[in-house]
Write a structure and sequence with these properties.
The structure is a homodimer. Chain A is an alpha/beta fold. Chain A has 3 domains: 2-44, lambda repressor-like DNA-binding domains (434 Repressor (Amino-terminal Domain), Orthogonal Bundle), CATH 1.10.260; 60-156 and 289-315, Rossmann fold (3-Layer(aba) Sandwich), CATH 3.40.50; 159-287 and 320-333, 3-Layer(aba) Sandwich (Rossmann fold). Chain A has 12 helices and 12 strands. Chains A and B meet through α4, α5, β2, α6 and α11 of A and α4, α5, β2, α6 and α11 of B. The first copy, chain A, binds a DNA duplex through α2 and α4.
Chain lengths: 334, 334
DNA sequence: CTGAAAGCGCTTACAG
DNA sequence: CTGAAAGCGCTTACAG
């Protein structure tokens, strides 16, 4: 900036004004400055300007999710990026991997980098440690999972209701022995999905058979193993609800290796690319990560723009996508 | 930092020494400083320290790819994150979307944020504009596509050879009429994949039938349409090579809707989650994005650590994953 | 409308 | 081993 000022023959302050589009600069001086800046390939140092600025804004936000390589997280990141870029804000990402320690590490790192705000799907179950930073003016928007012990904006899927509707759907096709396969019970959404399942069962006056419930399944092979055992048992389920992507894939493998794909009904949570290409195509409860991300980004930028209205909770509807695997009737009904 | 110094009753400089783990501090003073820092929940301002530091390092790198929501890009981002986090370096991401303008915009934005280095899969075909920043000490590592008019490190898949091997594989099953379906011809990897196809064909003494070559396919519906027309033609191909994920999906849909999945051979480029669950399971040329990312990140950090050896080009092998769809023999051979 | 001085939070380069 | 002064690139708060 000093060099630009020297080349343009003006003061530092004038360059600063031109760079920041302050309108009060004489057009001739301004164009001299712009010419000099272009000649020197000058790029203003955003960190330096943030340091002195009253608002201290770095034009950077953090998007911290479970795992940026999974399609749900990746889509959220990407959709936030799209909103951010329109405001010339840059997005730094991080993956918590369900590790509360890593949540602490990453949020602290972001705080050292003085990000302007956070969008996060937390791994921990206590977010009171963020209250100080929040009070200091950094907005937090939670996605996919609500904040615990912290008042903050939050954007969720209606997982519970989505699973209830999916379970009713299976019940309607005559299924009574429905297995529920869930992810880590420590995860909020995992609990919600199971709750949605129980809601529908009790609503139908059915009790949940504990031998048909398997939770804390994280990987496809684990799910494949469990589902294999269920299918091979004396009294197998006639339908399966898979509470998560990888679990769904494991379940489908177990079913296929037994050639039961036309006999056992399956509904999964979260859409899969290519779900329509399987035979039968896979019925799922699809979330809407683009919309979750857009709502979250919009909320965050509103807060950054000074919106001090009460904390909001936005619920984005999930959708039952009917494709075939969930519409296989129970044997007794055939 | 000032507050920490005041609370600990030491000078600013002593706090700075403790924060930066300079060993020359009296243990008693150091622990007083640490206590004060903890009480005040002090987080050092990395941008401010970068401003004055001789190396000017911000502990931030940029990872700019085609589209962070696609599995290939997302996996690269995630794997770079994993290497970066071990060095307490934070990763800011961006998506070019095959738009050279956006490449300029995003690299300039990153430059204003004074990132320490770049890992990027470029959209443009001329990177000379980065030479200045590179000379100023910011390392660039290109992934998936080589730099043009710029000397920079680069990590590539052996796409061309991978496609040649896949095509030979189809030829071995008796196919002569093999359709090639490619992505935008402006994309480097797209050209390479087509070149690999032609290599194998000419090696086998076959000419490429131009009516079986369709390039510039970007979306699944476009591919589905084109493949549909091919399959419905008087002299349809007996095998298809799909040069990209979405194209593969479109091709599979066209084949399935005509119930030809057991008759027309298909090989795709890039692995798909669930490719093993289709019937037949899909044979693909799989890249290794984790390894590409690890190599790129390692190279970048070597450069940041002062490695000034000549520019390197690393080639990561791709792998033909045989699953069934690519092993359907040509009709004349049956 | 333009600019000289001070200061953001930190590290550097010295002095003691 | 510890600290006072200067300065990184910028904006603020003034003065003219």
């Amino acid at each position: 900036m000093k060099d630009v000022a020297a080349l343009a023959g003006v003061s530092l302050k004038t360059v600063s004004r031109v760079v920041n589009n302050e309108s009060t600069v004489n057009e001739e001086l301004a164009s001299r400055v712009r010419l000099a800046a272009a000649q020197l390939h000058y790029q203003p140092n955003i960190s330096a300007s943030a340091l002195r600025r009253l608002d201290g804004r770095s034009s950077t936000i953090a998007v911290l999710l479970e795992d940026l390589s999974n399609p749900f997280s990746a889509t959220i990141y990407r959709s936030v990026e799209e909103v951010a870029i329109r405001r010339s804000v840059v997005v730094v990402g991080g993956s918590f991997e369900e590790d509360p320690e890593r949540e602490l590490t990453l949020t602290a790192a972001m705080s050292r980098h003085r990000v302007d705000g956070f969008i996060m799907a937390p791994a921990s179950r206590d977010h009171s440690y963020l209250a100080r930073e929040q009070r200091a003016g950094t907005p937090f928007v939670f996605v996919d999972r609500p904040p615990v012990n912290l008042e903050a904006d939050c954007v969720l899927s209606d997982s519970r209701d989505g699973v209830t509707r999916a379970t009713r759907h299976l019940l309607r096709y005559g299924h009574r022995r429905i297995a529920f396969l869930g992810d880590l019970t420590t995860i909020y959404t995992s609990q919600e999905r199971f709750a949605g399942f129980r809601d529908a069962m009790s609503e139908a006056g059915l009790s949940v058979d504990p031998t048909l419930v398997h939770l804390d399944l994280r990987t496809a092979p684990a799910a494949e193993h469990v589902v294999g055992r269920l299918l091979d048992s004396a009294n197998p389920p006639t339908a399966l609800f898979a509470g998560q992507n990888l679990v769904l894939m494991g379940a489908l493998r177990a079913i296929r290796s037994r050639h039961l794909q036309q006999r056992v009904a399956v509904v999964g949570f979260d859409d899969l690319i290519m779900a329509d290409l399987l035979e039968p195509a896979v019925t799922v409860v699809a979330q809407n990560p683009e919309r979750i991300a857009r709502e979250a980004a919009t909320l965050l930028f509103c807060r950054l723009d000074g919106d001090t209205s009460p904390v909001r909770e936005v619920v984005v509807p999930s959708e039952l996508v009917i494709r075939g695997s969930g519409e296989i009737p129970a044997p007794s009904v055939v």
